[in-house]
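Listing 4. Sequential folding, example run.
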Amino acid sequence: MSPRLSRRQRRRQALEERLRSRDLAGLRQLAAEDPNVLSGLVGLLNERDDLLRWRAIEALGLLCAERVGQGEDSMATVRDLVRRQLWSMNDESGNVAWHAAEALGEILHRVPPLADEFAHILLQHLEMPIFRAGVLWAVGRLASARPELFREQAAELSPYLEDPDPLVRAHAAWALGELGSEVAPPKGTLFYDFDSGELR
């Protein structure tokens, strides 16, 4: 007889099932029933399965935007989540969230008032090599809708086109392209396609 799963394990299992099938309606239903679903998605940001992790990032942005639409207290909840993810990117936190930058980029993309508040704080993490590719992806994601947020910083991004990490170079090229520069990401780089829900 298999041991009973804890509430957290059951939540993770339910999230993984819906993420693997990209069941966005099912994720909304879970979020309506369980206030800890956002925390559960945050727990998947270090998932080694790239597609599952990107779908968790997508769901986190979507559900945060929908949570914000429920009132001012809900905005405070999402703002607190953003602050905690920024804190997790600091060495002092003791629990580095490797893909927090991408999650923050998606949340700020979906919740524009928070982008005004936090986008440039996120940009400061470009100095940390472990977050560089993720921050550049976040810049590109935000710039795809609001290029004015980072237009003055475009020149600061150009040196990353020569970075030794190919993912950093690819995300820098994409971000600069979204900011109006004629730079194409190198071929062979996988990006998450929010239309299809697949890596391309």
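-- end of first protein; second protein begins --
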Amino acid sequence: MQIRRVRPDEWAALRDIRLRALKTDPDAFGVTFATALADDEATWRSRAVRPDGVAFVAVAADGRFVGMANGGPAHGHPDSAGVYGMWVAPEARGQGVGRSLLDAVEGWARETGHGLIGLGVTTTNEAAIRLYSAAGYTDTGERHPLRDDTDLEIAIMGKPL
């Protein structure tokens, strides 16, 4: 398994894994499959180059994207970085892919001068909470709605870098 940055010409493969993630685990994201499906090519191309941050993917031996995670400025916290849109395909779970994606985003955050990093996780996603806790993230106690069409909440977790 290789963890690397997305190349600009891979925007369609990034779109495909993002749409798969939204369809497979809709309660893990603040956007819906229908909303993302309506995004135009320019939007997807921008996500591949992430002008405000970085996009990483986990690439299987056959070249398929089986995981993704983004890093960027933390909303409302200028000194902090955030992990966004992290997901690992079911067939790649339990192999350290999630931890490797976190390590890649954290490395980017350190290189860009951030001293803290945070993320939001649906409070019912016990497997993700275990992963983030094992990686050193702690619950800040902050809660937000996942999105308008659900009662689910996200917990904000963070850690110093």
